[in-house]
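Lecture 7 notes: from sequence to structure.
We start with the chain below.
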Amino acid sequence: MTDEIPQPIPQRVLPPLSPAEERQWAMLAHLGILVNLVSGFLGPLVPLIIYMLYKDRSRYVAYQALQGLVFQMIWWIGGGLLIGAAWTITGVLSAVLIGLLCIPFACLFSLVPVVALFYGIYAGIQCNQGEDFKYWLIGDWFRATLIG
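Predicted structure tokens for the same chain:
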């Protein structure tokens, strides 16, 4: 009987992503917003999965994926809740004729996800072209969180 000390299992270290792979995964994280067109709400899973898979291999991909995730949570899901509330209020007030005046505002709120969709596509294109894209208002906060 020998008292052998068990050796630790070697960890497999994945190589960092190439610049082309970084651009590709960053673009896909932003274009995950297109999944919302089919599912309605599963788009945020795309940047979340990309973040979880590549956060240790590329800070750039992690940064872009987190931006895409929060952007979709705010503008797509939050916008959907805002639209639902606007149309509910409009419907209830329509019973007393005041709601008819609210219809233009409810229609305006309905454009929020469409604007978010085009902004997400624009972000994906910018990342694919090698640009360091950052969303308005949330980009600087994420950069400080990940880098600083």
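Points to note: The chain has one domain: 19-142. The chain has a mean pLDDT of 85.
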